[in-house]
Design brief:
This protein is α+β, with helices and mostly antiparallel strands. The protein has four domains: 84 residues, Arc Repressor Mutant, subunit A (Orthogonal Bundle); 52 residues; 88 residues, SH3 type barrels, CATH 2.30.30; 84 residues, Alpha-Beta Plaits, CATH 3.30.70. Helices cover 45% and strands 24% of the residues. It is built from twelve helices and twelve strands. The strands form three sheets. The protein has a five-stranded antiparallel beta sheet with strand order 7-6-5-4-8, covered by helices on one side. A four-stranded antiparallel beta sheet has the order 10-11-9-12. Strand 4 and strand 5 form a beta hairpin.
Length: 346
């Protein structure tokens, strides 16, 4: 089979039908652009040729065509890839998809408690691409995000992790632990970046060469980070989504803890109407309340949520969590009683 025939056949398999020659080449270039963008280490001309079933000279010609069209191509050690922080993608969405993006933008803004220029830029671009009736609200959201307090060092560290993650490069980081008041250095393989609903923080999850295990690090506590030349392979087929399956926030792992919470009739309807993470069952109780059963990896992140229900939520099990919440509630009650006594003495 000749080179052109192999190429046409390969594209037929990808697209499900034949196209004319110009359409075939345009589709091929778009597919190559996507492959280069998705590849962390890049592709050689030989690998490109094998993917599309043509000669290496055609691969080089396609790469030059992409460069001429404005795609930022990098070349290193006979590998080609896309410069991700200069690459601009384009998508087409319908009205209902526009609403989904608008809601996502609102959530993104709510999660970004700092001034992040990339969030602002992304929202502005999204606003310009949507119908004016929806886009104007995203513009307002971008303006509100722009007014938040700046933290240039945090943005620099987040950018460094993002680049290392996209290129699968190891990093050397310095991390501060406020609980122990210790600062440690380690080599780290960034597998995943995850926002936490607790405290509007971002965490980087990956393999920690100091502890020889998967760890989560709060990006705000990273004091320094530097990308290394060494690449990494994800260990033991680690899947971040499996890791976080039973996480209330970002603290995942293999441990499983069953938590049972009894909610009063005053708030049972609010508990039932929401889709909470890690919930196994919500059973109705004779008094109009409900019993929620959850399975989580850790209970630490859910403690503020439990305390937020006050006397309307009782921890049934585990006993250790029940005792911790009980002590917190007693301490809070004493604090308010103390304030009440002081006010009555005035």
């Amino acid at each position: 089979m000749c080179s052109e025939s192999r190429n046409t056949y390969a594209l037929y398999c990808h697209t499900g039908g034949f196209m004319d020659r110009d359409e075939t080449r345009a589709e091929r270039l778009k597919m190559l652009e996507n492959l280069l963008f998705q590849s962390a280490r890049g592709l050689t001309a030989r690998e490109i040729a094998e993917r599309f079933g043509y000669h290496r000279t055609t691969a080089y010609r396609d790469l030059r065509s992409l460069e001429r069209s404005g795609v930022p191509i990098w070349k290193e050690n006979h590998h080609f890839g896309v410069v991700k922080d200069r690459y601009i993608t384009s998508v087409r969405v319908n009205l209902h998809e526009s609403l989904a993006l608008y809601l996502s933008a609102r959530l993104l803004s709510a999660h970004s408690d700092k001034h992040n220029p990339h969030v602002v830029s992304a929202l502005e671009k999204l606003a310009s691409a949507l119908p004016e009736s929806i886009g104007q609200h995203i513009t307002r959201t971008a303006e509100a995000t722009h007014k938040r307090r700046p933290n240039c060092e945090y943005i620099r560290i987040l950018e460094t992790f993002t680049r290392a993650w996209s290129e699968r490069k190891q990093v050397r980081l310095t991390y501060y632990n406020p609980q122990t008041d210790e600062t440690t250095k380690r080599i780290f393989d960034p597998y995943f970046i995850e926002p936490s609903p607790v405290g509007y923080a971002c965490y980087v999850i990956g393999y920690d060469h100091l502890r020889h295990d998967i760890r989560e690090f709060k990006i705000e506590r990273v004091q320094q980070v530097k990308i290394l030349e060494s690449s990494y392979e994800i260990r033991d087929n680690f899947d971040p989504y499996d890791y976080l399956t039973q996480a209330w926030g970002v603290m995942g792992g293999d441990e499983r803890i069953v938590v049972k919470l009894r909610f009063s009739p005053n708030v049972a309807y609010r508990v039932r109407e929401s889709d909470w993470p890690c919930v196994d069952t919500i059973d109705d109780l004779p008094d109009g309340g409900c019993l929620m059963t959850l399975t989580v990896s850790h209970t630490l992140e859910m403690k503020p949520w439990i305390r937020g229900w006050g006397a309307d939520c009782e921890v049934i099990e585990p006993e250790k969590l029940r005792q911790v919440i009980a002590k917190d509630m007693i301490a809070a009650g004493r604090m308010y009683e103390k304030e009440k006594s002081m006010e009555s003495g005035l």
